[in-house]
Amino acid sequence: MGQIQQTENSKDVDVQIIQNMYQKFVLECPSGLLSLHEFKRFFGVAATGEASDYAESMFRAFDRNRDNTIDFLEFVAALNLVFRGELEPKLRWSFKVYDRDCNGYVDRDELKAIINSIYKIKKGTKKDEDDFKLTVDEAVDRLLRAVDTDNDGHINMEEFIRGAQLDPWVLNMLQLDMNPAGWVLEQRSAQF
């Protein structure tokens, strides 16, 4: 196994896996740019399926300048955040995953699309079966009631962050987004 490095938030990071990702990035993207298709291939995600929608949302969150590519700087910045970041910056990043049209708020349809993807992925791994006591629509309704404090049917970034910080159930529902490093490592581990 590779070297293990202790990070600021006391999670282990396998340095060898990160080095392998860098080598694969350079090998597969000699131009230095990663498209959505290449991003999915890079992490071993099928073009369609359980992880595809989630991978697309992650791609949008990684693509900070919205040019539909991820350069190595964006890639490294995102990996640094997901492996070492504090809770609030991770929540800000997670909000970007949910805000699919990048308009500054998450509406019911965006929330439903991501929660549906999360349910599919979690059911595929058979983890946290207690999370599935609610249907996707029930989970969306509960999240909106808990987080949409001004009741306008949209969640802005401040509501999203405050709601996740104050309500353990909300934070738990965002668990997959809050731990994209785990998702990345899980996808990569399946490749080896």
Description of the structure:
By secondary structure, the chain is mainly alpha-helical. The protein is built from 11 helices and 6 strands. The protein has helices spanning about 15-30, 35-40, 50-60, 70-85, 85-100, 110-125, 135-145, 155-165, 170-175, 175-180, 180-190; strands spanning about 5, 10-15, 35, 70, 105, 155. The protein has a two-stranded antiparallel ribbon. The longest helix has 18 residues, at about 110-125. Residues about 1-10 have low confidence and may be disordered.
Stretches where pLDDT falls below 50 for ≥5 residues?
1-12
User: What percentage of amino acids are in beta strands?
Assistant: 5-15%
In spatial order, strands of the major sheet run: 1-2
The dominant shape is: globular
Average residue pLDDT: 77
Percent in helix: 55-70%
List the helices and strands in order: EEHEHHEHHEHHEHHHH
Main beta sheet: 2 strands, antiparallel
